[in-house]
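Example record

One chain of 1025 residues, shown exactly as stored in the release files.
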Amino acid sequence: IIFRKNVMFKCATCLTYCRVSQSSGYFELQLIAVQNANGELSDGDCCDGERNTQDLRCSSDECDTYFRVCLKEYQTDVTTTGLCIYGSGSTNVIGGNSFQFKSAKNNQNRNNDGGKIVIPFQFAWPVSYTLIVEAWDWDNGTHSEDLLIERSVRKERINPGDDRQTIQYNGLTASFEYSIRVRCDENYYGSKCNKLCRPRNDWHGHYVCDQFGNRGCMEGWMGTYCTTAICKQGCNLLQGVCSAPGECTCTYGWQGPFCDNCLPYPGCVHGTCVKPWQCTCEKNWGGLLCEKDLNYCGTNKPCKNGGTCMNTEPDEYNCACPDGYSGKNCEIAEHACVSNPCANGGTCHEVPSGFECHCPAGWAGPTYTDECASNPCAQGGTCIDMENGFECLCLPQWAGKTCQIDVNECMGKPCLNAYSCKNLIGGYHCACFRGWAGQNCDISQNSCASGPCRNGGRCHTLLDSFMCECPHGYTGTTCEVQSNPCSPNPCQNQAQCHSLMDDFYCACSDDFEGKTCSELKDHCKTNPCEGSSLSLVVPSVLIPVIDSCTVAVATNGTQEGVWHISSNVCGPHGRCISQPAGNFTCSCEPGFTGTYCHENINDCVPPPCKNGGTCIDGISSFKCFCPDGWEDVNECSRNPCKNGGRCVNLLNHFYCQCQDNWKGKTCHSRESQCDSSTCSNGGTCFDHGDTFRCTCLSGWVGSTCNTAKNSTCDSNPCENGGTCVGGGDAYTCICKDGWEGPTCAHNANDCNPQPCYNGGVCVDGVNWFRCECAPGFAGPDCRINIDECQSSPCAYGSTCVDEINSFLCVCPLGRAGPHCQEWIGKACRYSGLQFPHGSRWEEECNTCQCVNGIVRCSKVRCGRRPCLLQRGGAGPDSSAPCPRGQECVEHQFLTCFAKPCHQWGVCSTPDPPPPLHTQCEPNSGYLDNSCARITLIFNRDKVPQGTTVENICSELRYLPIAQTLAKDCTLLILCDLSYSNSDAVEVAMVSDYPTSAPHLQSLSCCHLPMIPSYLLLTSHGRLQE
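Predicted C-alpha cells for this chain:
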C-alpha cells in the first residue's frame, strides 16, 4: 500500500492475526435435509444433461451437490463476496438432487460427521453473526458462479450452548434444512467463550469449575484462586499458620493444638506465661525460675504429731510442736503416753526408756503396730489394717499383694471399634477405626456432622467416610457439580430457557407466567388505570420483600425452585422476626435474653441459696451446692451408734449418747473415747474422759474435722461472673456462656469461623457476634444485596439496574440525568419521519444524527451505487438491490478490475449527476492540503471475479473512517486503474468539494489528516487484498 500527501511514504503490506489465548470454541452446522426436485442450478439450467422436451424436466443424471459455508461479522447489507472474517468450511460431494441425514433428523445431539461443517475460532464469540450457506454442483473441480444451486443468507444472534437451532430455508431452486450451534472448547465458558476455568489441585490452586466457569474451592481451601488453606478450626491465626487444610503450625514462641498457649521462659518450674518467654510464678512459688517454694508448709506438711508449721523463708520452715513432742518435725515424743500408743484397751505407763503397755486379758505385745502406716499399697491402692498384717484394695488395673502387678486390661476386650488393643502400665490403649473415638472406641465421629453435601444433598455415614445422595441436577462427591438446568427444557408453552447461577429463568410470552410459564396470565390482576385524566403511568415492578431471617438456596426439590432456610442469626435459643430494610429482631426462648438471645438470664440473682450455699445458674433454673450439713441429710439414718447408744443428728455429723459406760464417737469402747475413725480428714483425737476433742489439719474444721474451709474461693478467683466451687485446697470455676478457661478469663471467639459474607466485618462479643456490613449489603450475615431499585428511582419509563450500593438508570432517547429526569432535546423530522433526540440512522453511505431538533449528517459524496443487472428476465439479484424508486441500468464507462464484469450496472437517479470540477484526480500529480491520494495494490489471484473499480470505490465511501473525515467537510472519493501498475487502483480524496445535496452542503475547507492505510482496509471488513 502506498500513501501520498505532499510526501510519499512506502509501507510493506502486512497481515496481522492476533490470537486471543483466553477464548476458544467452534461454530457447528449440521445438514438435515436437501430438496432439489428438478435438479436445477440457480440460473435455471440443469446440473447435468439436457432438459426433457416433453415435461421440461432435467435428465436422470442428478446434481453432484456439495456445500460451502461462510461465517462473517454481522452486516446490515450482506455481501456474499469478500473475506469470511470468522471462518469458512465446506463438504465433499454428499448427495444428488435430494437427500437427508436421518440420524441428524431424529437425534440432533447425536454426533454425525456426514453433512457437518465445523468452523473453529480463537476469539471472543461476538454473539451476532452473518451466515452464508451455499449449495454447489461439482464439475471436475471447476468453481464458477454458474454452478451455484442455492444460497441462504442469515443474520442472527446465537449464544454458546449444547442445544441446536434448526433452520428451514426455502429457495427458488432448492430448499434445505440445517441446524447450527456454537460451543465453547473444554475449560472455556461464558456467552463469548472467553472465560477460562481449568480445574486443578496443585500449588497454583485447589478448585473445581461449575457450568458457568466459576471456581469452587475444594473442601479446606479458600481465596480467589483457592490457594489459602483453611486452618484447623479454633487455630489462632495470629500465632499459627497452615499450608494444608486442618493444620495448625505454631509460630515461634507458641504451642498447643490451637497455638493459643505461650512457651514460658526455658527452665521455668512453677510459672506460667501470657506472652512467650515469660515466667509468672504460680501461687506460693518465687524465684527467677519460680523454683523457690514460698509455702513449704502447705506443699510438704513436714510437721508431725499435730505440730503447727510456719514458713520462714523460701524452702525453710519451723514447727511449733504440741506438748509432749519436740524435734525439727515434732517427731520426738517427750511424754510417750500422750499419744495413747497402747491398743485394744491397753494401759500406758511411762518408763525411763519411753513407755510400756499393760494389756487386758486376751491381748499381748509391747504396743499396737499400724501396718498401714508405711503406705505399703502402691498405685493408689487402699490399705486395710488387720491383726498382724494388712490387705490392699487395688484399683482395677493393678493386682498383687501391694498392687504392683499390672493387669492386662486387653484380656477383657474393652475396645469395641478398633484395630487392636495395646496393654499399658496402669491402663490400655485402643487403636480406633476411622470414624470412632473415646477410651473404648465407642463414640461415633459422624462424618456427616460437618454437612459436606452441597445443594441439598443427603449425607450417609460410612465406616470411614461418607456418601452424598445428590438431588436431581447435581453430581460429584459432594453434589458440587450442577448439570445444565435448561436441559431438558423445564419451560412450558414454548418459552425459552436461560441458565442462571444455580437456577434457570423462563422468558414467558405475554399470555403466561410463573416459574416455568405454566400458568395463564391474568392481565386484569393489577389495573394500572386510575381516574379519567391522561397521565404518564410508570408500571410498578413487583419486588419481593427482603426477608432478613431466611436465605434462599436453589433446589430442584420444590416447585418454586428455591429452598428457604433460616440464617440462624438468633442462635439456638431465639426465633428471628424479619423487619423492613434488612433489619430483624429476635424472640427469645424462656430463660434467654439479649439482641441475639445469647445471654442466659442469671437465675442466681438475687442469691437463692441459703446458709452459704453456692448457686449454679441453669436455663430458667438454678442449683444450690450446699455446705456440709445443709442438705437436710439425716446423719442418724444409718444407725451409727452402737451398744444401745442414742443418735442425735447435728450439722454435717452426729452425736451418740452412750449408755452403760460405753465410750467413743459410736459408743464402741469401754476404755477410750478415741479410735482411728473418730476424727476425719487426718484429725488427731484426744480422750478427755467423758468426751473427746479433735485437732484438725489446715483447711478443715468441725468437731470431727468433717467441714472443709472454702478458703480457695475467698479470693474470688473466677472472673467475668464465673461461679467458684471449691473445697480444701482446690476449686473449680463454672463459667458463664461466652467465657472459657480455668478462671473464665478468656472470651470465646464467636467470629471463628468467619460468619459474615460480602466483605462484612465480624465484631466479637460475649457469646454473640455482629456483622458490620459493607455498603450496599444488609441482613444479619450481610448476605442480602440491598436493591436500590426498590424505591423506583428511575422516571419516565427508564430501566433501573441494581448495582452494589448504587443504581443505574438506563434512560430512553431524549432523557438524561441520574434519574432520567432531564429532557435533553427535541425530535427531528427528516424525509417524512420523526427521529428522537440523540438517535442515529444511515443515509446511503452517510450517518445522520438528531441533535435537539437539528439533523447532522456526514458529508460523503456517495455517487451512483453499483448493482447487478437483471438476467434472463428472472428479476434483479437481491444481493445488490437499488433503493426504492430506482432501477439497475447499464453503464458503459464502468472499469473492470477482475473479469467478467458485464453483469454490473448502476442505480438510476431522477436527476443527472452534476459535473465534477476538481484538479484532485487519480493518476494526477496534484496535491494540496485538501487533496490526498492513495495507491491500493492487490493480489490478483485473491480478488473475486466480477470486481470493478467502482465496486472498490463504493466500498471506500461506506467505511466508518470516511464518515469520520466527512464530519465537518464534504468528502469526494474518486478511483481509477493505475497507469503504472495493472494490479493497483489509484484513489483521490477531496475534502472541500462543494455539493448541492441539502444535508451535505459545506464550503468550509478542512485539512485531510494522516490516514493510516490499514484503517481504510479493515475498518469495514469488506475489502479483500
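Notes: The longest strand covers residues 25-35.
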